[in-house]
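Why do we care about 3D structure at all? Because function follows from shape, and shape follows, mostly, from sequence. That is the central idea of this module. The next example makes it concrete: a single protein chain, its amino acid sequence, and then its structure expressed as tokens.
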Amino acid sequence: MEIFGIPHQAFLGQIMLGLVNGAFYAVLSLGLAIIFGLLRVVNFAHGAFFMVGAFIAFLLGRNLGLGYWPAMIAAPMIVGFAGIIFERFAIRRIYGLDPLYGLLLTFGLVLVMEGGFRVAMGSSGHPFPTPQLLRGAWDIGFMMLPVYRGFVILIAVVVCAGTWILIEKTRMGAYLRAATERPDLTQSFGINVPLLLTLTYGVGVGLAGFAGVLAAPIQHVNPSMGSDLVIIVFAIVVIGGLGSVLGSALTGLGLGVIEGLTKVYYSEASTTVVFLVMALVLLLRPAGLFGREEA
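And the structure:
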């Protein structure tokens, strides 16, 4: 049996592999959408925080003997705390200014972070072992799906859904939206607006660090691993709608599949298909698929 001219096993297998890449895109773009949607900061350092999360998990295992599961909790918290420090002493000074200032500031942070890790850890990649519990593969009929890649898809869906519920359906999320839209009025109700904004940035970059931990057993941990993804993630956030948490998550998963299928039918376009989709969406709907027109 063939689907669009190729065996159905290859077609369905490529969809599953695309979902794995899409899972990384979804979690990364989720944090980026939170930071831009609530803080209006173009966080170009998002890929660098992704890389830092992977390196922290690697170093915790190599130097402290910490297993994968404790590292999955500790690394995002450490990255989030670093983000809080950076927001407190740098990002806070550019709120309300042209987004170009945030872009330039965070781009400078990227150069510092990547250069520092390149000097300390070298440019070559470091292998990260797959946790024992998630080794092996599942036979799902049309392909053998590695257990760890299936876990990545599942955990990405859970994290994206949980984050969306937190932002859109809880009182804390309502406070966050109010603090960014009407900070003066929100402050008058006794809510600590600066603290909320700081925590928002910390959570956003913490999600990037979490994505880095997920990626570590699949990719070699190296200083450039984040810079290879950040441009694609920015495109995904634009396609989904700037600031739309749900749009970024769904678009990340969808574009991972589109990118995977493009490798089957026309591999030369697999590296540019995301940007072609972005151009088409901007022509037809400038606010993005899930964005509001006033965005």
